[in-house]
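During the reporting period the student researcher (J.K.) took over the structure-prediction task from the postdoctoral fellow and processed the backlog of single-chain submissions. One of the processed entries is reproduced below for the supervisory committee.
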Amino acid sequence: MGKKKLKAAVYMLIALVTLVGCSKAESNKGSGAANSTKVPTIKLAISTRGLPYVEGSSNINEDKYVKKLRELSKTNLQLELIPHQDFSKKLTLLLAGGELPDILQNYGIDSPEMAPAVNAGAFYELNDLLQQYAPNLLKKIPKESWDSSMISKNGKIYAIPGENYVRNSAVYVRKDWLDKLNLKVPKTIDEYVAMLKAFKEKDPNGNGKPDEIPFSGRQNFAFAEAFFGAYDVIPDGWKYENNQLVPNFIRPQMKQALELHRMLYKEQLMDNEIFVQQGKDWDAKIKGAARVGMWIHDPSYPDKWQSEVRQGDPKAEIIIIPAPTGPDGKGGLGLSSSVGNVWAIPKSNKNPQDAIKLLDWFYSEEAQKFLDYGLEGEDYTVENGKNKYKYATSVDDINKENMHLMFLRFVGSSYLANEEFMKGRKDSELILNGLKVANSEGRKSDGLGMPLPQTMQSKPELAKNGLWMETAAKIITGQEPIDSFDKFIEDWKKRGGDQIIKEATDWYNAQNKK
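J.K. obtained the following structure tokens:
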């Protein structure tokens, strides 16, 4: 090769190396810039939870708390609200439509809405992503929650669990009605019935009209299962007995429970609209009209309930009391899973690591401070290095406060676990007493954590809200005799119930290595 050609080749090689080097530098520079300055957009679908502040928002993404959450988490978080009242229906439609958000709230990967989509491979397996991007989630969330069938299947994690700090509901009673009628706090079923009769007959609201509703609940016995708990037959629970795992709604004790409810219905000690009543109508009776003496709900915010009931009756006082005890001396509502909110990541999300990082951030001190105390200068100030919180007193303020205390707390510890925060709270005694009562009782289901049996999935009429609810309604309202319960059991078993019991028992034996 001639000198001129050699020199030209050398120059070309130098130019090529320089060009490649520059390209790499620019590429690395661009990558670094993207990593350091690009804010990921994350679309998250979430239930409104029936919270007035949330449902009253004209544009949730312009809300000041959502904006602050974006700023602190360094994400462009965009919320898509799913109405609490129609959550299951809307979730089903969302899954069928195919256009999914980056993070989807749900009732568990084994729920009727989610299970088909999970089985079809629509959601990420998260094991590796969690190991890479979620040190806080793996450290702070207990193994029990990760192992739940709501979260994992065959050792593969398909969702991230929120914390369920309070695992059962509790009985709320109008204390001012008890005091006016000189009634003691009831304990047994008989004492409860006597209280309800007094509420019905002795005009505790003092308006001279027989308009009191002693005990009210929602459609299909939602928030109304205290007397079933007294007989240890919470309708959606299971019991392992005689070497089988059987649903509570076919156990012999259920017949006794239905007989009691038949009497409560006949004597109008129980709201006669209980089989059809929607949440808004239930709320209106308890709060706006202040006509209800006893109801059931989450025990963690009785202060909010009291403020709302006082809108209908300024003299109202409420108290949370132990649920009625039954023949075995025990009682309580059904104990739920340790898992609260459930978050799954659809495979349509091309950057699942961003979603994982966001949820992991919720366990940081920065996140917990914001979720507990809200906005500095508006919800709290800092004095001598300590947070001075402006505790809410009015209904509107309490509703606004629930935006950061509850709604935006996707995962992470509950504000109820913050002792410093709770001590200064108005009506803290009422709240702490409610939590104490709830934590001291409850009926555990032996089927807790069990995926819905396959036969029950394919034949939903064999689940609680199917044949059993139909039979219970007819018995309680007097359309059928109490003995029709026996025919229901026979029919339920023939239509697939025996297979359901077999599937449930196989699951139980595998879990307990029998």
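The committee noted the following: The two ends are 84 Å apart (CA to CA).
J.K. will present the remaining backlog at the next meeting.
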